[in-house]
Amino acid sequence: MSPLQAEQQRSKKRLRHRSSSSDMEHEYFGMYSNIDIHEEMLLDASRTEAYRNAILSRKDLFDGATVLDVGCGMTCILTLFALEAGAAHVYSVDAADVMDTCAAVLQANNVSGRVTLIHSRIEDIEELADGAPKVDIIVSEWMGYALLFESMVESVLLARDRFLRPGGHMFPCSARIFMAPFTNDDFLDKNVRVWHEPMYGQDLSALTSHALQRHIAMPQIVNMSDENIIGGACVIRTIDLGTEPANPETLMHLSADLRMPCIAHASLHGVCAWFDVTFPGGIVLSTSPSAEPTHWAQTAFFFDANGVDVDQDDVLTGKVDVQPAPDSHRLLRFDFAVRLMRNKAPSLAIDKTYILC
Q1: Where is this region: Disordered (predicted)?
Q2: Which CATH number do you get for residue 181?
Q3: Catalytic center residues
Q4: Which residues form the domain of 248?
């Protein structure tokens, strides 16, 4: 894959910053009306196989069950998995303009009679059907970059409170966000330092400032490996999908202490975030640098393009605050106040704000 193709792939689930809130909502659901994003998600084998394995391994729960699929998408893939596991009926809900395609997919799989398609935001639905009882299981692939991007988890928890019977099951049932320090010269060489060298015999170094603004001032979606991680990871958020209150003020706002010991001499470039989710039965879908790559990759917050030398036993300590961005509840704002501690004394202060959009 070329760098341009890779950037196009990473951009499919990005939202434009500075649009009005109503425009951004229209853009958000419009984005999911196109096949590109569904192709990207479906072809993410780590993601799709984790869901399939998690659902099919719990046929004891799905057999004869009534299921709600929140954000079924154009493929209805989770709906199909639930039916394969023995679900008696699935309510498949999506606000994007995908219902005609969904109907064709269901017909092609001879399951139309076991599915009710609902074209709506879940927030606008009071009951799934006239006199319909509460469902036994909710399935949803709601996770965004750094877990909370797009804030779809709000919709899933609202659906839980409104439609899930007591003792029902959430797929997935829990989630965690991690952060760790990283180094990534390869990314910087390809995206920033490339402008330091003449191109086609011409000096284009004046573009470096634009590259810094594009790739350093903004969070980046980057696939990393264990070799990029130069310190211990810490969990900054844990969500129990069964008990977490559906309150945006607590769900989408977090303040976490950071303490990340460096494990090797390296050039520190920033901190990256990833997540995992766990399903009933214990299957885990991880977006960790040590796991198989996914379309979520990791969310990288570059502190400095030049890097800061760190040694084993240096410690990054401080705080990160995460909340919805002012322009839209689907975007995220990250505020870092981090100190590099060397011999128990601060040697560097990093105070930066990023908008994930």
Answers
A1: 1-22
A2: 2.70.160.11
A3: 141, 150
A4: 176-356
